Amino acid sequence: MEWGGAGNWYKQEVMNERAIELARVIWAYHQLGQEAERAEWMVVFGTNDTRVAEYAAEMYGRGYAERMVITGGMAHGGDLLATGWTRPEAEVFADVAAERGAPREKMLLEPRAMNTAENIRFTRALLEERGERPEKVLLVMKPFMQRRVWATMAVEWAGMGATVTSPTMTLEEYFTPELPAERIIPIMMGDLQRIWVYGRRGWSAVQRVPGEVLEAYRELVKMGFTQHLLEGEAEPDGE
């Protein structure tokens, strides 16, 4: 498998059915299957996929939250998560959500966060600065960020009532020309590795990684889907 620089992803011939089959295992693990619950505030996590902002606007329109915080800075450039945008993710997402009917006066923007922990930490601080003390929040993110966000909440905003929700789709439905399998699978792999690495470091709650998920991870590593992995990190203990 070869990496050809920005815009030139993996050779297409390696994107076989086995790789997709393994990726489905990891896709399923990343999601928690929670039922969205209504909350005072919705927290929308910026990313390179504006379908999250569209979904947040839909959930607002269905009455799932009274107001929303949209969080995300300009964290990525030249890597798999790069957006190519010249503005923070929060600002781009706000425009998309407004186009889908979410009123701007019901939005707060948090445009500084550079990672998931900062998304939560800065959102919490922003609400506290405004004297807001919600009892419950609804967390909105791309499907394969659910587990990481949930685990990070346990450290950064322990005790806050929350549920997570994402656009409902299969792995194959998630792929687009801009977000193809060759790009998304390595990102999911990196997010999976960070679940146990950050758990060890105390940056998020420790999560059990089932054997079949770890085996899928190992096989995809052998296939070469390693571009978003942290180097020199051991696998989970006891698996």
What report would you give on this structure?
The chain has 239 residues and is an alpha/beta fold. It has 2 domains: 12-30 and 170-223, no CATH class; 39-165, Rossmann fold (3-Layer(aba) Sandwich), CATH 3.40.50.620. The chain contains 8 helices and 5 strands; from the N terminus they run H-E-H-E-H-E-H-E-H-E-H-H-H. The chain has helices at residues 17-30, 51-61, 89-99, 116-129, 146-156, 171-174, 181-201, 211-223; strands at 39-45, 65-71, 107-110, 136-140, 161-165. The chain has a 5-stranded parallel sheet with strand order 3-2-1-4-5, sandwiched between helices. Helix 3 (89-99) links the parallel strand 2 (65-71) and strand 3. It is globular.
Topology record:
Elements: H1 17-30, E1 39-45, H2 51-61, E2 65-71, H3 89-99, E3 107-110, H4 116-129, E4 136-140, H5 146-156, E5 161-165, H6 171-174, H7 181-201, H8 211-223
Parallel strand pairs: 1-2, 1-4, 2-3, 4-5
Count of all domains: 2
User: Which value, in Å, is the CA radius of gyration?
Assistant: 18 Å
Order of helices and strands: HEHEHEHEHEHHH
Strand order of the largest sheet: 3-2-1-4-5
The CATH topology name of the largest domain reads Rossmann fold
Give a short account of the largest sheet: 5 strands, parallel
Percent helix: 40-55%
Structural class: alpha/beta
CATH class of the largest domain: Alpha Beta
| Shape call | globular
- Termini gap: 27 Å
| Residue-averaged pLDDT | 91
Could you tell me the number of beta strands?
5
